[in-house]
Design a protein that fits this description.
Layout lengths: L2 E7 L13 E7 L3 E10 L2 E10 L2 H13 L18 E7 L2 E6 L18 H16 L4
Antiparallel strand pairs: 1-2, 1-5, 2-3, 3-4, 5-6
């Protein structure tokens, strides 16, 4: 089973100003393990860090973390505010199909029911911990 996971930090904009992407993390599983690529953006410049993880305890921890996202609530479409409060979107695909996603709609067009979408403190904390754990795999 092939996984692709993308986290993008910097999804919240203000008013008519779009979001400013700070970094992105792409994780691609392979038969040997996983490849993680983190790109950090600063103005017109970017730096990229790549790490290969062979199958073993570190790989298992990464996959457990990724699977844990799927236990969190998901929304059928991008929502107008960052209900998880982490300024980070996540998209997980397995064998080319999206299995879990969270993102924020930029712009000001949404329906009134979207404004009522929220997450519990426990859900926000779980999401924040999972994002932090994934980001820790890119620490040099």
């Amino acid at each position: 089973m092939a996984f692709h996971i993308r986290l993008i930090k910097g999804i919240v904009g203000g008013g008519f100003i779009g979001p400013k992407v700070e970094s992105s993390i792409d994780i691609q599983t392979t038969s040997a393990g996983a490849t993680i690529e983190k790109t950090t953006y600063s103005g017109q410049n970017s730096t990229t860090f790549t790490k290969d993880i062979n199958k073993g305890s570190e790989y298992d921890a990464l996959m457990e973390n990724i699977s844990s996202f799927e236990k969190l609530p998901s929304f059928s479409h991008p929502i107008p505010s960052d209900v998880f409060g982490k300024n980070t979107s996540v998209v997980i695909t397995k064998d080319g199909k999206v299995t879990w996603a969270y993102g924020v709609q930029s712009g000001c067009g949404y329906n009134e029911l979207d404004a009522e979408i929220s997450a519990s403190a426990d859900t926000k904390s779980s999401y924040s911990s999972l994002v932090d754990n994934i980001q820790s795999f890119t620490d040099a």
